[in-house]
Design goal:
The protein is an alpha+beta fold. It has two helices and five strands. The longest helix has 12 residues.
């Protein structure tokens, strides 16, 4: 999938790079984060370009995948402490069943 990398640097316009890479997003981000631990200057190579960057000037990096469906989040019901206490009392009651055989 096509990945869009947005690099925010101090006192410079953001650098936006596109990369056609089939790597899993988590693995891709981990590999990209290794660049931040390199010395003064490093080369970022993508499928279509190469960039010389200074890791110490980078403020943040955002990576998104184009065409990937967005995650849907659902709102969960908030349970009060009183509700949980009542439920635990109900669950703790023991029931004896007597049968004639």
């Amino acid at each position: 999938m096509k990945k869009i990398i947005k690099i925010l640097q101090s006192n410079v316009e953001p650098l936006i790079i596109e990369d056609n890479d089939e790597t899993d997003l988590n693995e891709y981000i981990q590999n990209l984060s290794k660049l931040l631990s390199v010395g003064n200057v490093t080369i970022l190579e993508t499928s279509g370009s190469s960039h010389i960057i200074r890791p110490q000037k980078i403020v943040s990096i955002t990576v998104t995948e184009e065409g990937k469906p967005k995650r849907k989040y659902t709102k969960k019901k908030i349970i009060s402490k009183e509700d949980t206490k009542e439920d635990s009392k109900k669950n703790n009651t023991q029931e004896d069943i007597i049968t004639d055989e």
